[in-house]
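Morning run. Coffee first, then this:
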Amino acid sequence: MGQMRGKASLAFEKPPVIISSGSVAGTKEGQGPLGHFFDRVEEDDMMGEASWELAESAMQRQAARIALKKAGLFPADVRYAFAGDLLGQLIATSFGNLDLAVPLFGLYGACSTMGESMGLGAMAVAGGFADRVLAMASSHFATAEKQFRFPLAYGNQRPLSATWTVTGCGALIIAGEQKENALRSGKGAAGNRSALARITGITTGRLVDVGARDSMNMGAAMAPAAFHTIEQNLEDFQVDEHWYDKIITGDLGEVGHRILLDMMKEKGRDLSSILMDCGIEIYDKEKQDTHAGGSGCGCSAVTLCACILPKLRDGTWKRVLFVPTGALLSTVSFNEGQTIPSIAHGVVLERV
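And here it is:
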């Protein structure tokens, strides 16, 4: 009970730590500004598989095994996996995790799934329900277009407000800090320096629906959810925005990023110097035709692994608020003319 903060947040008395990460990205992502920082960049987005969906499953297997290898662990050393994707009934996750044989919680938070998996995984570790967990999320441009929009061969025109679904998967191993240090001390590990970052708190988002209906403008639909979660986090922890070195949204893209800045400004908060968006960082606007930026579960997941965690580990940033955002529409709800509810989950990450 003492770990609860405000209406929707937790502050962990014994913060779990991220001990390793694994990132796998597609060809377009590998050509972007973060390309050199991914653990693996695929030369073929089919990844040698018979379908796009099987290719996304292959990415999950690869990312999980990279994270495990970096941590010096086997799948049997992990208590639970918390993972998800954008596909109906989580088929990328289901088939991607078969060979791992780790007890699985399949999650759907749309593009916010990485934040959801980290939050639930951290709660399981901090509560003593697991010693180590795997948190993972993926997306694939071709599988998302096939499911939510049009077949690739159709060649439909995309408006400038549209984002490009990232082909990528990010995976983390989250563990209890004290136990992990004790186990690793016998292997010559350098104590806390083996960890990438601490998860010191979370803020669980709530559904926000402002009546948006344009599936080609996800940034506008998700920005209000990001605004609510950030405000709730600051209220629950009784801090202001400058408590963080960076506040990092998942995939608002340029349109949603501007909307969020304006909403914050109306609240009296100037985030212009500290607000960052993974969807803007992952692609080169001048050289890559991605319009408003990147999106998808994999967007925030691979940017976290390739950019955010390294900057926490080397001391560039001491504390960040990571806020993946998700638009909770489906082909059924969209075709029935429904609005697009959105959600954002906040994860407080601090340097070890």
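Residues 314 and 351 are 8 Å apart (CA to CA). Good start to the day.
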